[in-house]
Description:
This protein has 258 residues and is of the alpha+beta class. It contains six helices and 13 strands. It has helices at residues 101-110, 126-141, 156-161, 190-200, 215-223, 237-248, and strands spanning 2-3, 9-11, 16-20, 25-31, 34-37, 50-54, 62-64, 74-76, 95-97, 115-121, 146-151, 169-174, 178-184.
Amino acid sequence: xxxxxxxxxxxxxxxxxxxxxxxxxxxxxxxxxxxxxxxxxxxxxxxxxxxxxxxxxxxxxxxxxxxxxxxxxxxxxxxxxxxxxxxxxxxxxxxxxxxxxxxxxxxxxxxxxxxxxxxxxxxxxxxxxxxxxxxxxxxxxxxxxxxxxxxxxxxxxxxxxxxxxxxxxxxxxxxxxxxxxxxxxxxxxxxxxxxxxxxxxxxxxxxxxxxxxxxxxxxxxxxxxxxxxxxxxxxxxxxxxxxxxxxxxxxxxxxxxx
Length: 258
C-alpha cells in the first residue's frame, strides 16, 4: 500500500491512470516506492465515475479515499501493458524473435532465396543494446531480408551448440548456399555488417532448396534434444551403402549415419 499526496491510497499497481469521463486523465506513477499524482484536482473526481488502468497488475487494485472525503465510485477497467525492453523496441515486420532451436531450423528452411541474418544478443550485453537501433534501421532498409533474433540467455545450450561464444554475433544464410558468413561486430565496426548485407543481399537464384544449418550443427542440436530427429537430413543411397560397408567391417557408425 502506498500513500498519495492527494489523499488516495492505491494497492496492486506500480503505475495507474485515473480518468474522469468528463475531464482529462491524470497519471499515478511510482517514484522510490511512493505513488504520487502527476496532476490532481481531487474535487473534480468525488462522486464521479473513474476509469482505472493498471499497467502492471490486474489483481488487487483498490482505491481508498481519505477519511474526510466520501468514498469514490470507481469502476476499474484493466489495461494490460508493460514497458518495452530495449531488444523489443523499433522492431520491423521482417524481424522475428526465435523461441526454440526447432523454430530456428524451420525458419531457415522456409526462407527460400531470402537472405536470413541471425542476430545473437543478450539483454545484459551493452554492445548489443547500443547496436540494436542500427540493426533495426538496416532491417527497415532491407525489407526482403529476414532478421532472426536469438536471446543467448534464454537459449544458452543452443547458442553454445552453434559455437556462439561472443556477443553481439551475426550469421548470414541464403538459399542453397547455406551459411554465407559469420562475425561479431559493434557500433565501431558496423561497416562489417553493412558490407556483408550489401554483398549477400543482392538478387540471385540458387539451385536447390534452402540449406539452413549444416549437418553437423543439426546433429549436435538433435543429440542435445533441441530439435526433432525428423529435421535431420535424409541419407542418400550412397550414404546407406557406405554405412552398410562400415557395419560389415565392424567399424563404428559415424553419428551422421545413425
